[in-house]
Structures are given as C-alpha cells and as structure tokens.
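Write out the 3D structure for:
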Amino acid sequence: MSETQSPEALLDALQSEGVVVIDEETDEVSTTEAFEADREVYYDTYVTMGDAEFHESVAEVFGLDSAAEAAERVDELDVSREEFATFLTLRSNVDGSYTTVELTTMAQMATELGPETPVPDAVEHLDDDSYEAFVDAHDRCVVTVWKLFCDPCEAMKEQLDEVLAAFPDGVPVGGLAGERSPEFCQSVGVNAAPAVVLFEDGEPVERITGRTDPSPLADRVEEVYGV
C-alpha cells in the first residue's frame, strides 16, 4: 500500500494539474480561472442543496451504507458543501492516480486557497463565519451576493455607486461570495447572483435576485424600509 503524498507534494500536483498557479515573485497561490469555471458547475448544484439530498450524494460518492452514515461523517469531519463540490471538480479534472484521501486533502487545499473574491471593495467583505455578527450588529443592513464569472454581477458592479446610493444613509452594506458562503445562501434562500438581501432586526425581509438597475432597486428598498 503506497503512502499518502505530503501536503507539499500535493500542492505541486495541484500546480501540475492546472488547478493552482503560484506567483513566482510573491509565492502567492490561487486557483486558476479554468478550474474555477469547472467548479462553478458543481457549486451551483451542491451549495444550496438540502441536507437529505446532500447526505445521499456524499454516501453515493464515498461508498457509504446510508445517508445517515454520511450525515455522521459530514458532522464528524466538518465537511462543507464547498469542499464536497471541490472534491468532485478535482475528481473530474485530474488523472486517476490519486487516492481518495489525497483527493480529499487536495480539495481542502483548493477550497482554502480559492480565487480572488468577486466581492467589490466598496462593501464590507463577509463570509459564513462573519455574516451573523454583521447582521446582529445593526437594526437594518444589506448583504449583497456576488459570484465569479457572472456577467450580471459585473454589469451591476459597473453601476455600483448608484446601487449603493439606493440604500438609506446609515444602513451598512456587506457583500459575500455566494459560491464560498453556502450557509448564508441556504439560510436566506438565495440561489442566484447577483442578489440583494435586506435585513431588519436580524431577519431577512426582502430578497432581490438578478441584475437590478439602481432606480427600481431604490423603489423596492423604499417600499420595504419605508424611507
């Protein structure tokens, strides 16, 4: 039985497989655009999937006896939908010489590295670990959702100043990468980007999905918040 390759060797493998690139000047590692384009397909399938279906998929992929056993393993190992989607992407993109353990480790590495965030600099950057504190800290706030390789997102960013002006003064605006924040997307029922979620007293009171021009967005915000 062959030994599992070291993390350093697996990082080299990710580079040779075209999954990551390493900047020679800064040593910064990031996933390639080609890999992210493939991973997006799996993200769209799995990040908003219900628990039962997710556990059934995990059981099938890893040869477990039941969805219940898969649920236990997911909880025990703290496996996220993002990691699972990344695992499936890797499995379909690399040669078959890697063991399941190695592919799992490579998926964790690729998930942690990720690409540059699609969230614009003008809003506070959030993720699954920080959005609850952001929402709880304000009576009213807005969370925007963005994705990579998303033409409607890019079009909305071109009008970002006008989009931000659609929200009342004093209402903070955050943003997160939808494909990297499955917990948030599932909790508020958002499965597309761009999206705007209006919160009041800690609860989502409106979800606006798809590219929205500033004027109709401002009208809807005024209807919801009454300002």
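The longest helix spans residues 33-46.
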